[in-house]
Structure formats: structure tokens, C-alpha cells
Amino acid sequence: MELKKPYLLFLGDAADQLAAKVAQGIKTWRPECCVGQYRLDGCNADVGLKDISIEEASAAGAKTLIIGVANRGGVISETWLSVLIEAIEAGMDIASGLHNKLTDIPELVACAEKHGRSLFDVRYPTQSYPVANGVKRSGKRLLTVGTDCSVGKMYTSLAIEKEMCDQGVDADFRATGQTGILITGGGVSVDCVVADFIAGAIEAIAPENKAEHWDVIEGQGSLFHASFAGVTMGLIHGSQPDALVLCHEPTREHMRGLPGYALPDIQTCIETNLQAARLTNPDVQCVGISVNTSALEEQEAMSYMDLLETEIGLPVVDPFRQGVSRIVEKLKEL
Amino acid sequence: MELKKPYLLFLGDAADQLAAKVAQGIKTWRPECCVGQYRLDGCNADVGLKDISIEEASAAGAKTLIIGVANRGGVISETWLSVLIEAIEAGMDIASGLHNKLTDIPELVACAEKHGRSLFDVRYPTQSYPVANGVKRSGKRLLTVGTDCSVGKMYTSLAIEKEMCDQGVDADFRATGQTGILITGGGVSVDCVVADFIAGAIEAIAPENKAEHWDVIEGQGSLFHASFAGVTMGLIHGSQPDALVLCHEPTREHMRGLPGYALPDIQTCIETNLQAARLTNPDVQCVGISVNTSALEEQEAMSYMDLLETEIGLPVVDPFRQGVSRIVEKLKEL
Fold first, then answer.
1. Could you check whether A7-121 and A140-333 share the same CATH topology?
2. Complex ipTM
3. Which of B30, B80, B144, B225 could anchor a disulfide with B219, C-beta 3.0 to 4.6 Å?
4. Per residue, what are the HEC states of chain A?
5. Which residue numbers delimit the D-glutamate N-acetyltransferase-like N-terminal domain (chains A, B) (predicted)?
6. What is the dotted CATH code of the domain comprising A140-333?
7. Beta carbons of B230 and A237 less than 8 Å apart
């Protein structure tokens, strides 16, 4: 699966800015791939692109309309349907990361067939992956891991890819979740793969490459999350990472969705992830910690990160406040 | 999903005894559930049951015909079809653990619909499982883990269930693979579940129970297997095991299917599994080691196990040669 670019970002009737975070992610990380945004009446989000019609988007060369908004229940709303059909008729594919599938809407399926266009439900893998073979691949790989779910692994990975490219390093972000796939146009939603093929799917999306090339692989879940650690484990093994970056959110009171489960100690978390990763790459190292300090004041955030850096002895950064250049510098020492 | 008993075991045209190992497993562990075996001309296997016709099986009360044979490629052969149809017409359901599905054969589907019977492809989960919640459940649980795949986890689990029941302990085997499901009539083929739901599926098949009740959960894969460790990790977390039993095959030269990957050291393997299991049950203990010594002479086997027992300090048994009573005794000390 590879989404065709450039994109028209569909914001629909987003209730607020947060509801359009998928569109925001695409705009932030791939502005060159966006011809504009399409908003319905009552839309309360704006990702800072030009508002354009389907006709204008088509004239500007848009190849795919991306549903960049999450509404309650992940449903594809009736009020969206006429826009999606207009886009298909204008020659665009449609891509969505929502729970409910485009391909379950007969009207859309019929329209896409008629016009020879494709519907991409990127949350659901459509191809089969092989069982992982564990054979060492050429090229280098960095994987983001986390103390918990939803602590900034995708953001950190994209920031590292950008910084590496800015510093002249040959690097590619590899998406493992639906938002990452929509941002970059490819990847696998690894938590939706059949369990036997978790590691194999990652081997497939981060294949052998030039010796100096880096894949920056988006992590999922946490080895310390009682619901999802299996996904994380397979992802670690399939990545054969040369480098890990640990992501963390310091104000979380318990593991996401699991009251009663405390977050792991940072040093223990690093050690446990390294131990798992050594199975397929004995030389793996942790090169830094990425902290999402958005819930802290600037001063508090800086003190927290200074203390952590002293304790752990690795670069500690907030990618949003400071960027990830110190982590990339550390990486170059490998 | 719950298969109806008793069973007629279909051995088909099994090339040799090994090809009928599913039928053999059912006969060994649930002889009281089998009314007989059905063999085609040229069948080279025999699980020691009476050879009976479909008509006789039906008269004896058979509710399900189990495909107890694996042929090359896991295909449901043309030559089997007339027998399966005769069984459906005689009132039986059909159950299979093969890769190719019964439900993909239009002739079988039509016949089952016409006669109100069911086709069970037990390798493929048909229900949705919830995301694991990690909440401590009442009742006790034992999980078998392994140094590698295919080292005797199912056999060991069934032997422990039987020994516990013989000793008056209230215990149930919980199947996590297709052969185990066919033997016991229920469970989940956990490596075929969508990755996000591995731990949740295990929480579902080993639900809360009486405080003194033991679930004996069949393990899958190994934390040290680069292809399948994600499945194992989720299985460990969902099981919330009070007790682990490590299974091992001492003559294996590398991890199954992975040349170049050595087997883990036994003590390291125990420690790593305990560490993973402590996330959802901090009190977990390893209570013994089950060794498949079928590739060793009696004397060699005994020496190997004696040495290992001295080194590790836990009961070491071959469940086939000696039974698992020493492991169950150790369990009672918990």
C-alpha cells in the first residue's frame, strides 16, 4: 500500500482543533504534500492551509483525499459522504484511519469502482506478511519505545527523521500506526496484524537498505503495558534496532487505561527494552530520552529533564520545545 | 465456541502415524470423548479406537467429526469430501484445525446450512476479544512457557491438568492452539488473534474462578523466539500466572526455524519469563521444568535431568517418562 500524493486534507465538521490532529500531523510533517484543506460548515479546526473546493484541489493535482479528522465513535458521517463522492468523481482516492471502514459503505465502494479509484482503510492491513526470519538486514535502524502508550513515539520518530535529513543523514520514517501511515503514505498498522506476524510485518516495512541508511521506526505500546506489550515485543524483535530512544510523559499517574498499574522506573524501562532488543541485535544501545513535557511549565520541564539527564547519563530532550539534535548527535557516535 | 461431544475421529488417508497426531492427542487425553475412528483406504495411522462407519458413529451418539489428520499443505482433500458430507447428513458438526478452511468449500457450507450443522475452523477466531484490562482475577493459574516453540508445552499442560484432577485438585486445561482446542472442545488459537487482543483473549478464556481452582494454560512460542515472542509476551500478561513451568527439548541445535539463533540458557530463560509475568502477577513463581527427552536414551535422559535439577533447584521431569506428579507436589506448596 502506498498512498498517492499530493493530498487534500478533509477536516469535515471537526468539533475542535484536537479532533483534526491527523490533519495537523500531516501538515506539520509533510507540508509539501498538501494542496489545501476542505472544511464543512461548523468546522472548528484549522490546520493553516488554504481552504479549497474539490474542484480546486483536483486542479492543483490532489491525488488522495485524506480524512484528517476523528469524530465521536470513529464513524464516517452521512454529512461527509457527498464530499467524498465528489472527490472520487474528481479523480481522487480516499484514505481513512478510522475504526469504521470506507469499504463497508456500499455507495462509496460503487462510486470508487465506477471511477477506478481506491479506498484505503489504513488501520486494517490488506496484505499478508511473512513470519519473521530474524536474519540480520543491512542498513541501520532506530526504534522509539515508551514507558507507556501515547507518550510521543510518533512525534519523536518524525522529529528524528527530519533532524537526520536536515543534518544530511539518509533516513526514512517507518509508520506503524494509522496516523503515521496517513502522514507518510505507507507502513503497517502493526497492532491490527495477526499475532503470528507482528515481527514479520516490521521486517517487511523496514527492509534491508544501504549500510549507512537509517530507518526511524515508530514504536507502539510499551513492554510495561499489560494490554499491549505483545505488540511492542514483536515490534522490537522485527526492528532489529541499532538504537533505541525512550519516550516518556512525566505527569501520568498510571499506565494508560490501567488504573492500579504504575509507570516503570526509567532506568528499568531502558534496561528491559535493551534486553528484549538484544535478541535480534546484540549491539543495540539506548541513545536518548524524549520527554513530552507539554503538561509542565517551561521551568519545571527544564529542571525535570536536567535531573533525568544527570541520573541516566543520556541526552534528554523535549522534541517540541528543543528539537532532537542532541539525540541525533549521540547517534552519530555509534 | 464449544465443540459438541462425543467425537468421531477422522484419520483420512494419513500417510503415517505422525500425520494423525491430532487424533492421537484427542485419544490420549480425552478417550471418554471418542466413539471411534474413521479411516480411508490407504490410511497408515491407527490411534487404537474401533474402526466405525458414519452410520455406526451416529448411532453411538457422535456429535462432531474431528479432522484428526494433517496432510501436506493443510488442504482438505477431495477424497475426504464425500465422508464429511455423509457425516453432516448424519447430524454431525465438522471441526478442523487445518490451514485451509472448511468454510471456504461451498459444497460443505451448503450441506451444513441445509442440515443445520456447524463447521468449525478452530485455527481462526470467529469472536472478537476485548483489550486486556489487567485486573486481577480470582482463581489460580499455571502457564507453560518454553525455551523454544514445539518443545512440549501442550503435552505438559494436559499432563498437569490430569495429574491435578487425579490428586483431587479442581483444574481445567485452557487451550491456546488448534490441537488443544480440538482435544478439549474450546479455547483460542492465540497466534491467529489480532495483535492488540492477545492478552485480552487469554483473559477471556481463563476468566475469574473459585479461589482454589487452577487453570492450566497452554503456552505458545518463546520469549526467545525472534518470530513469535510477541504472542508469548501477551499470553504471559493475559494469564496473570501464579506458577510457570518451563518446557525444554535438550537436543535442539538452534531455535526452531531460525538457524543462527541459539537456545537460551535455562536459568536466564526462567528469570526472563518471571520478569515478564511479574507485571500482572508480582507473586509468580517457577515450579518446575518439563523436559522432552524423547531424542535421548533412558540413561542419558536421567543424567541430563539430574544435573539440571541440581543446577536449578526445581523439580525436573519428563512428563512422558515419569509423569508430572513432582511438579504438582511443588505447586501445592505455593
1. yes
2. 0.94
3. B144
4. CCCCCCEEEEEECCCCHHHHHHHHHHHHHCHHHEEEEEECCCCCCCCCCCECCHHHHHHCCCCEEEECCCCHHHCCCHHHHHHHHHHHHCCCEEEECCCCCHHHCHHHHHHHHHHCCCEEECCCCCCCCCCCCCCCCCCEEEEEEECCCCCCHHHHHHHHHHHHHHCCCCEEEECCCHHHHHHHCCCCCHHHCEHHHHHHHHHHHCCCCCCCCEEEECCCCCCCCCCCHHHHHHHHHHHCCCEEEEEECCCCCCCCCCCCCCCCCHHHHHHHHHHHHCCCCCCCEEEEEEECCCCCCHHHHHHHHHHHHHHHCCCEECHHHHCCHHHHHHHHCC
5. 47-125
6. 3.40.50.300
7. yes
Q: What is the pLDDT of residue B78?
A: 83
Size of interface A-B (CB pairs under 8 A): 126
pLDDT digits (tens, 9 = 90+) for B136-185: 999 999 999 999 999 999 999 999 999 999 999 999 999 999 999 999 99
d(CA B296, CA B306): 14
Question: Are the Cβ atoms of A226 and B134 closer than 8 angstroms?
Answer: yes
Q: Look up the pTM and report it.
A: 0.96
Pick the CATH number of B7-121 from 3.40.50.10610, 3.40.190.10, 3.40.50.720, 3.30.565.10: 3.40.50.720
Residues B304-331: tens digit of each pLDDT: 999 999 999 999 999 999 999 999 999 9
Locate the domains of chain A by residue range.
7-121, 140-333
- Are the beta carbons of A135 and B260 separated by less than 8 Å? yes
From A192, A227, A232, residue closest to B132, measured CB to CB: A227
